[in-house]
Design brief:
By secondary structure, the chain is an alpha+beta fold. The chain folds into 2 domains: 134 residues, no CATH class; 165 residues, Glutaredoxin, CATH 3.40.30.10. Helix content is 54%, strand content 13%. The strands form 3 sheets. It has a 6-stranded mixed sheet. A hairpin with a 5-residue loop joins strand 2 and strand 3. Helix 2 crosses helix 5. The longest helix is centred in the N-terminal third of the chain and has 30 residues.
Length: 323
């Protein structure tokens, strides 16, 4: 028992010395600073090819709501990642500020702590990349490559957006009018010249890949991102330009408050770019099943278009709800 007590006492003194001394604080601060620097670097890194580029783009999409079309991130998603380490680092500095003065006078030990912190962050980054590879089947997605659609894993049963807006023909329409059918909801605006044509093209390509029977089961709503400027005439012109017609394709607008509530529900980010004179925005495709539930959510991209098509086929062939 005496040996055990002595061993326990030694371990306790060692741990106490570790946490009360300066080196734990130096190590923690270095880890937090390097980790935050890595996050900022990934956030600012331009799209690139290769494993690192694929991982960075996937990380930004998952954690920062990154939109590869506009190159923008959702700052509301970024702030928690950067703020938490900053707060923890500030608290560490305030608690250990006296001990840190001692550490600064010992450059050799200080460099060892910095090196250890870099090693820990490197191991963490390697772990994240390994997890991402495992989630993607140990290889990044290559444009044009066919990957199985994980229908069950992505399927949700969330509340669908409810709204009634005016389409390009001046008719008041709502997704609830098509209960028992499949509804695709996306967002565009009439004067958009880059992302919006891509959004409508992806939606049209997905629809074109369906059989005639499947197409008949699907109705599309494209909600304006610019309700202050997009009136019925503007959306009618856009519909003619893209050769889509109601009642299957509804380009809708309405009172700004009503439209903005729908866009907010969809989780779409948008901001006026004064320099380029355009509305920068993210994108989304929401699929509502025959039961009126939000079943899937997709974005732009080759793989997303493949899965959008697969999801539409799946939903269009599900049995109609019982009355």
């Amino acid at each position: 028992m005496s040996v055990l007590k002595e061993t326990t006492a030694i371990a306790g003194r060692t741990l106490r010395g570790l946490f009360e001394g300066p080196w734990f604080a130096v190590f923690m601060l270095c880890v937090l600073v390097v980790w935050n620097a890595m996050l900022v670097a990934m956030m600012l890194m331009p799209d690139a090819q290769g494993a690192l580029g694929e991982f960075t783009a996937d990380f930004k999409r998952r954690c920062f709501d990154y939109d590869s079309v506009t190159g923008s991130v959702k700052w509301a998603s970024v702030v928690p990642y950067v703020t938490a380490p900053f707060i923890l680092g500030t608290a560490t500095f305030l608690v250990y500020r006296r001990q840190l003065g001692v550490a600064l006078r010992k450059p050799m030990a200080l460099s060892i702590c910095v090196g250890a912190a870099l090693g820990v962050v490197a191991i963490g980054a390697f772990g994240l990349m390994s997890m991402a590879d495992a989630a993607n089947g140990d290889k990044p997605y290559v444009a044009g490559e066919s990957l199985p659609f994980p229908a069950d894993k992505l399927r949700t049963q969330l509340k669908a957006p409810e709204f009634r807006l005016t389409n390009q023909n001046g008719v008041q329409v709502s997704p609830q009018d098509y209960r028992g059918s499949v509804v695709m909801i996306t967002a565009i605006y009439a004067t958009c010249t880059d992302a919006c044509p891509m959004i409508l093209t992806q939606a049209k390509n997905a629809m074109a890949a369906l059989s005639e029977h499947e197409q008949a089961q699907v109705h599309v709503f494209a909600v304006t991102l610019d309700p202050e400027r997009d009136d019925q005439a503007a959306l009618a012109g856009m519909a003619r330009g893209h050769r889509v017609k109601a009642p299957q394709w509804n380009l809708v607008t309405g009172k700004p408050a009503d439209v903005n509530a729908v866009i907010e529900f969809m989780g779409i980010w948008r901001k006026w770019n004064a320099e380029k004179g355009r509305l920068d925005h993210s994108n989304a495709f929401l699929l509502i099943d025959r039961q009126g539930r939000l079943a899937y959510r997709f974005s732009l991209g080759d793989l997303q278009q493949q899965w959008l098509t697969d999801a539409l086929k799946l939903l269009a062939n599900e049995p109609e709800p019982k009355p």
